[in-house]
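queue> holo job accepted (glutamine)
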Amino acid sequence: TLIIGVMAVQGAFLEHQVALKGAAEQISQRPKLVVREVRHAADITSDIQGLIIPGGESTTMSLFLRRNNMEKPLEEWIGQKNHVTWGTCAGMILLSKQLEHQKEGGQSSLGVTDTLVSRNYFGRQVDSFEADLAITNPELLNDPHQKKEYSRGVFIRAPAVLEVNDPSVEVLAAMRLSEKDAPVVVAFRQGNVLSTAFHPELTEDLRWHRYFLNMVLSCS
Ligand code: GLN
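queue> job finished
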């Protein structure tokens, strides 16, 4: 049995649950999946093996975490070797150690990944859009369940990674807004933490959920 927690404060947590179930069926081990919604500090239990922090609004989410005394238990949970965390969009922001334009005493993040993230990197130009991702990880390429070699990313006021500050950060996907723009990192993995700037749970493409479940399987 795989126990996966999905932070259910705001954002597309129901879509993540559906995608997780679909992805579990595509994995050869066919793990039996139990999905738990995480809303309170007491929900953050060590038997949860993987945790998704979905998109939403990172300031609202970090305030919620602080008011409900969830920051410390979350940081401790994430720090365990056998626990896998996946942040999508606002989740990526919350997990990043550094944020662009971070004010003193302002928004706190969980401070896990060695990255500098811009909270609204694309939002300045376009609110929401879809784009093809340049996937740089072979496990994620050539998906047998999709007839295409690229993954389509749904970006909603999306963040992006401006700087990677540790060699243990593995870039998984980049994208460019136009031919003349330089590619920007939109997915990476650092140890047991996965971060994506886009929303795979809003597409039919389950490769990211499968990748996450395989991370959990190989960690526990
Ligand atoms: N840019 C948003 C923020 O600052 C995140 C948007 C999203 O999660 N879709 O939180």
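queue> The chain is about 25% helix and 30% strand.
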